[in-house]
Amino acid sequence: MTDAPYEFLTPDTTAEYIKSVPEIATKIDADDIVSVEEVGDGNLNLVFIIRDGAGRGVVLKQALPYVRLVGPEWPMTPDRARHEAEALRKHAELVPELVVDLYSYDSSRYLMAMEDLSDHKVWRGALNEGLRHDGAAAAMGRYVGAVAFGTSCLGMERHDLAERLAASVNPDLCIITEDLVFTEPYVDAGRNSVLAANEKDAQDLANDDVMVSEMGQAKWAFMTRAEALIHGDLHTGSVMVKGESEAGSGAAVSVKAFDPEFAFYGPVAFDLGALYANYLIAAARACALGDEEHMRWTLALPQQTWTAFEEEFRRQWPNRVDPRVYRDDFLENSLDTWRKEAWQFGAAKMARRIVGLAKTTDIETLDESLREGAARGVLQAARLMVRERHNGSDPARLVELVGNLLERTATR
């Protein structure tokens, strides 16, 4: 700790830190702290949930100078916290109800204070439990649509756009995506792993020339298409949901995206594809467990996300900054491109979560006998999607295409 370039937060120092920041001190009584829970966030950061005697809470999140999943041997710039804070603030200007509320950002310690969403569930966990939050997928589609328009050249004046784009250059986090999502599943990079029963599936993926070619196209788009300030890691583990029932399920009354530390100016369809991928991975889990009803419900989520995205983008379209050449044909062509690319980026994210580093609990918590077929189904679905996207990219097709494949590959 003493060799750290800045002071790391600990459970014992959270109260004093809260007292030192007026924006946080008004949210919680630092002299009456009753619990400090270090929950982490999986792969990269320190995360603490602090609560006082009155039941009020705050979340403190600090970026470490390395990848927590691996350790100090994988250095990583803590400036990712600035990218996260700035993305949260910009996205909150557009859809404040759909992002976590940021109270403060400490640039000297790469430390954010945010609202406590302990009354919500992480959407991935809820899906793993078989819970349904109707409307959550549409909410995320609206979020992506609002961000796609509001942070692009269609929604921002030119100088503001240039300043935002320059400040959002995020190469360290982008390299992680470029390597782990688009490249390493197809080469022996030393970080891939699968069950022994799935080794042939992984090899078939790597030997699939069509898949590898599509990943090259996707990586090129990811690295060159600065369309909007995308979230950059919008999976179901980066969304909190709250249902109308006491059990936490039912219609979603609150849906909030968080963790946009991978945010940068990139292709709009990348966030859509990330959502698609995680919906389909959740469907693979449900299929493996023999819950066909939940599988079919989950397979319908991509259509709900796309419909809400398209509706939001069309709603914003009349407000574009420069309508002189951005005519309606441009709108239709853009939507058609993003519709196809969502399948491509979704396939990339699906394959990466099965073969590469940092897998998902949807699949990993299954018994090995069930995991084999679920993993196989996800990989085969990814390979099918990059082919079928050219034959019709309406996400409603995924219900039958992927559903039938998952049922054939299940090993239950």
Describe the structure in your own words:
By secondary structure, the protein is α+β, with helices and mostly antiparallel strands. The chain folds into two domains: 105 residues, Phosphorylase Kinase, domain 1, CATH 3.30.200.20; 289 residues, Aminoglycoside 3'-phosphotransferase, Chain: A, domain 2 (Alpha-Beta Complex). It contains 16 helices and twelve strands. A five-stranded antiparallel β-sheet has the order 1-2-3-7-6, covered by helices on one side. The chain has a three-stranded antiparallel β-sheet with strand order 8-10-11. It has a two-stranded antiparallel ribbon with strand order 4-5.
List the topology elements.
Layout: H1 14-20, H2 22-25, E1 33-38, E2 45-52, E3 57-63, E4 66-67, E5 71-75, H3 80-94, E6 102-106, E7 111-115, E8 121-122, H4 123-128, H5 136-150, H6 158-167, H7 171-180, H8 199-206, H9 209-224, E9 228-230, E10 239-243, E11 252-257, E12 264-266, H10 268-288, H11 292-299, H12 301-316, H13 328-355, H14 361-364, H15 368-388, H16 398-409
Antiparallel strand pairs: 1-2, 2-3, 3-7, 4-5, 6-7, 8-10, 9-12, 10-11
